[in-house]
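We close this part of the discussion by returning to an individual protein. The encoding preserves chain order, so positions in sequence and tokens coincide. The sequence in question and its structure tokens are set out directly beneath this paragraph:

===
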Amino acid sequence: MTVLTAGLRDISDNFDVAVLDQYGVLHNGFEPYDSANDALGFLKKSCKPVVVLSNSGKRAQLNKDRIRQLGVRLSPNSHVATSGETCWQDFESGELVFSPKGRQLVHPIEAWEGDALIWATGNSRIEIVPELDRADVLLVMGMPEPKKADSLHSVLEQACRLRLPMICTNPDKMSPGQDSNLPSPGTIADRYEALGGRVIWYGKPYPRLFEAVGNRFPDVEPERFLMVGDSMEHDVAGARNVGWSTALVRGGIHRDEFKTATDGDSILAGLGQLAARYGGVTPDYSLAALR
């Protein structure tokens, strides 16, 4: 059964590495949550390593800089691991190969024009190409800006006809915004699969990103990692699949499920309903917010 806890202080003896989701746990995309910096201060004083684990299609350092700009007080030795970084590294190491050519020709779907060029900088095996019919692979790293969204379906149909594989470096379907949840790039990859296309997924709940974090701490047993997230589907299920401990924050993407929960029994009932929706997976712990 899930243990309801007031904060990480109460369970700090039960984990060695704190792995924190970004959106929905540390911040809402605009500002930090009220107690997030207090929790980070406690983890620093406790000498607990912190890894921010994000389904961002961008590089890790760029995400670390942006998190700090939002006012989240990450310590200098905190790690940031993103699905975009892991994908970049797999291209560079030759793990991802779609063409016998030396460089892999990548056509991006990005939030803002130029994001993919920034992401690919320094990689000897990636060339970003604007022409779909030249590409070896389609890369989804962000939701397109509104003026390009209308043409997206025709791009996906053409890519299917060309039998291009797709890499999705942000599997999130929805992300918590300031006032409501917002659609995320995983919805594009779902549409591509529905059209018959092949998708290679990077990020939570898929194992590659968790493996990248585990490799940083080879002496830590899997159950001593604590994944703190706000998504049952991505954070809790993904971490449980690799043997990590899990904590669900109720103030993120599932916040509406707990609006009327006023006591432990009603919170546990809400968690049970979420578990039924997501294949029976339950977190080890649950807290109202990161604290």
